[in-house]
Amino acid sequence: MYLSINLIILLCFLPFSYSNNSLEEVDDNEFINLCATEKYVVVLFTKRQCPECENIENELLSVREDLVDSLNAWVVKIYNSNLVQIYSPAKEPALVFMRHGVPLLYSGDINDELILHTFRENKEPNVRELDDSNFEHLTQAASGATTGDWFVLFYSKTCVTSHRLTARWEAVAAALKTRMNIARVNRLDTGAATARRFGVYTTPTFIFFRQGKMYRYQLQSHDVKALIHFATDGYKRIAKSENVPVPKSPFDDLTQLIADYIAENNWVVALGGFCVMIGFALAMRTRKSNSNKSQLKKSKKKDKPKTEENIDKPEKSNTKKSK
């Protein structure tokens, strides 16, 4: 009887013991639904037989209750998810903090207190959205950058690489938010004129603005640490300093837009040249035809015979009237 009671108690507490030693597991669809309905979601992308994954999970378990209490966040894990490549190029393990659906890839040391501090201090997205209407006003890039340094990502909604940079770019913003401004510009839409101003024609493109100068990040690596290093010190050695161009006038921007369009669409030049040649040929043919008609008329006038006078003029009478 005593053994049976102990067994019942053990079975009752077993689920709680298991849940305290492991994160709740969800699949991709459940995770997507959580992001759509919940304000904060902390997710660990993990895989089986991965000591590093287990280490991160243990650290996360240590602060799970704090995350729930302070942020009312869901803390879950996903095994072998197809979504991990959207947030991390290295795949599993990847720790991501979703805020209103905007991801932040954790890139710090694996430490429970540091994880908790990072998520608490970055409850809202840090990357600022700039466009043609506010870029110069907010950055003052051409006038001396009195608003501080700016590290800007030019992206497009149709660029897969740009889309997969969102979580990493937020990680850069979280790491540098006390030192500089991190922003992004939609190259093909709301920031098209700004992109033309700085000669940005591909995405993703990174430009660092500092004290009236601009530095282009041209390394192939889009790793969080590489981007942070460039903005804090690396730009001095690996990037060429350029003067920040002043904003273009509407006419100059239109001219640049036409020039860029022609440069990107060589067939327009070929078609235009072909049309000019056809027009010139038609004009020459019309001119030659008119010339032939004129010569033909002149020739007909020369060959036309003169008409003889068939009626004799009356002779003058010399006779005087008799009195």
Automatic annotation (TrEMBL):
Residues 305-323 have a biased composition (Basic and acidic residues). InterPro entries: Thioredoxin-like_sf (IPR036249), Thioredoxin_domain (IPR013766). Residues 1-19 form the signal peptide. Residues 128-227 form the Thioredoxin domain. The keyword Signal applies. Residues 287-304 have a biased composition (Basic residues). Residues 287-323 are annotated as: Disordered. The chain crosses the membrane at residues 267-284. Gene3D superfamilies: Glutaredoxin (3.40.30.10). The keyword Transmembrane applies. Keywords: Membrane, Signal, Transmembrane, Transmembrane helix. PANTHER family: GH08893P, L 2 01289. This is Thioredoxin domain-containing protein. It comes from Pediculus humanus subsp. corporis (Body louse). The lineage of its organism: Eukaryota, Metazoa, Ecdysozoa, Arthropoda, Hexapoda.
